[in-house]
Design a protein that fits this description.
By secondary structure, this protein is α/β, with parallel strands linked by helices. About 55% of the residues lie in helices and about 5% in strands. Helix 1 runs parallel beside helix 3 and helix 1 runs parallel beside helix 6. About 30% of the residues are buried.
Length: about 325
Amino acid sequence: MNDSPLPASFPGLLAGHLAKLNHQLRHLRANGLDSAVAAAAGPSHTVVKRLQVAAALLSDPDACRGAEQASLQRLGLVLGELLSGLNETPAPVPAYLLTPLGHLAEYLTEVFDRLDAGEEPALLCRDVRWESLLAVFINAGTVLQGLDEVEDRLLAWSRRYADKDLSASQELALRHRWALLREFGDSLFGGTAQGQSRDNLTGRRVMLLLDSPFRQAQLGERLREAGCLVETSGDPCGLMARVGDPLPPEILLCDNLEPSLHLTTVRARLESLTAAERPPLVLVAATGGSPEKLRDRAKHLGAQGTWADPFRPSDLAAALG
C-alpha cells in the first residue's frame, strides 16, 4: 500500500485491509482466543457463499485481465484467503464482520453487473463507494461501528416519522432515550468540538418555535449542551408574548412550515420593536439546498441567518455573528 494512494487503487486499499484482518483472525484462532470474538446471530452462511463466488470470479486471470484490473484481482485473492480462514473453524462468522461482509457482497454483485454492461474497469475502480466499504471494515468491532448503526437507524426513523406528530407517550419515551444518548457527548450529535469556543452561546436565553416535537427535543438538547437556557413552543403567540416579558429570550429560532408560516408571523411582531429590543431571529432549516440558497432564503424571510443540518452549536454562533 502506498502512503498516498491514487483513487484508482481503492479496491487495492480494501484488499490490503482485508489481508490485515485475515492475519488478525488467524492469530486469534491460533492462540485459542475465539471466545473473545462474539459469534454472529444472522445467516452468515449465505453471505459467505455469495462472497466465495465473487472471490473466485475476481481472482480468475481470465475474468480480470489488464493492468487496470490488477487491484480487483488482488481483492479476489485476499477475499478468498479470508473466507478460507473463516471456513477452517466450525464457529460462525464473528458478529462484527457480518454487516461489513454483507455490504461487500451486495456491492460486488453490482460490480459484476457493471462490468458485464461494458463499464471501463478503471472508472469502476475509482468509485468512491470502495472507500466507504473500506471505512465500514476499519470501523468493524469498534465503537464507531455502533455509532454507524445508530446513525443509520436515526436516518431511517427520520425518513419515516420526522414529519408526523408524536403521541404524548411516544414523545416522553423519545426524550428519555435522547437523555441516555447525551452521555456520549456532543460528538455523537454533531455538537461543538472540544476546545472550540462556546462563548457566543453560553448562558444565552434561547426560544425554539418548531412544529416538530422531535426536532424540538433534538435541538433543545444540543443547545443545552452548549450552555443555553432553552424554551420551546409550537405556537407563535406564545413566543411573541415572551418577547414582551421583562426577561425576554435573547435568541429566537423559528421554522417556516406551512400553514403556520412561523417565521413571517414572528417577523411582523418583531418589526414593532426598537432595534435594541429586537432579539436576533434565525431560520431553522432541516433541508433546503446549498448554504448560499439557505442564506438567501433567510434574508428574503427577514431572518438574520440559518441554522441547518447537522445543527452544530458552532454554526448557530457563526450565524449570530
